Each structure stands twice: as C-alpha cells, then as structure tokens.
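Input (structure):
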C-alpha cells in the first residue's frame, strides 16, 4: 500500500538538515516507544546525512490487532539517508524500516525543499504487511495513523528548532 506524506518544518533546509543529523533529535523520535534499549547513530557522508535508529519493542506493547500475529519482541532498524544539497538546499533521500519478528516492510523515497519561510519534506511511502487475509486491513490501519505521526514530528521539530 502506498501513501504520500508531507511534513512541514519551520526553518530553512540547512537548519532542518542540521536537526536531522542531531542524535538528540533522533532520540526524541523514538522516546515514547516502550523499548528496552535504543541505539542512535548519525553521520554526514559526502555532504549528505544519515541517521540510524535500532531497538526493540516488546510484543505486549503492540496494539492487539498486531500482537496476535507476533510471537516475541519486534526488533527494528530505521535508516534515513539524504544526499548532498543542491544550490537551493533541496535534497533527496530514502528511509527504510526493517522489522525482525514482524511480517512488515516499510520504504520511502524522500524529497526536501525550501519554500522561503519553511521546509517541506515529501515522503512517498510503501508499506507491506504480509499476513494472509488481513494484511491489507493492517496496512490501511497503520496508514490511517500517519496523520498523528506527522503532527508529532512537526511538533517535536518545532520545539527542537526553537531551542537550537
């Protein structure tokens, strides 16, 4: 299942890239998850940037509609990468989420561009849940929650940008 998401950040693309390369900001993205441990790493290869977050979520912390298909903790690895900026600060990239212990795959291509007063990031998301009969419904349910994820990201980013 596919969905296009747009996240608006109240800053220039350069400041948004600085925020995305900050380990503290990346940690704040997963701070509310009930995981035992999380590892966050950031890098700035060849003018681009990369963030990697890994951890695990206990099955008991997952929504009931999902946990009945999962036998143990779900380990996750998220990788967000952005290429070097163009002269206008625009960037393209991708995001991949790997889940071990769950029949789910998530991938997105990303595009960042400034609008003069802020930065817009567009995500072209592809989500696949490989569970016979109910996989499509689980995909639809997951994508229905994306508006809240976008609102949380915008709120978290606005706070980080105001403080830095």
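Output (sequence):
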């Amino acid at each position: 299942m596919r969905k296009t998401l747009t996240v608006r950040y109240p800053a220039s693309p350069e400041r948004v890239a600085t925020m995305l390369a900050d380990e503290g900001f990346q940690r704040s993205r997963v701070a509310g998850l009930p995981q035992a441990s999380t590892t966050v790493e950031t890098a700035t290869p060849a003018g681009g940037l990369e963030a990697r977050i890994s951890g695990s979520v206990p099955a008991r912390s997952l929504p009931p509609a999902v946990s009945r298909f999962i036998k143990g903790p779900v380990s996750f690895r998220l990788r967000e990468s952005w290429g070097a900026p163009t002269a206008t600060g625009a960037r393209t990239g991708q995001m991949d989420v790997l889940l071990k212990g769950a029949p789910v795959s998530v991938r997105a291509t990303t595009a960042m561009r400034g609008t003069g007063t802020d930065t817009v990031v567009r995500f072209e998301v592809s989500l696949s849940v490989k569970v016979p009969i109910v996989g499509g419904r689980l995909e639809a349910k997951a994508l229905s929650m994306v508006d809240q994820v976008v609102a949380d990201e915008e709120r978290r980013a606005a706070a980080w940008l105001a403080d830095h």
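Notes: The mean pLDDT is 89. The chain is about 30% helix and 40% strand.
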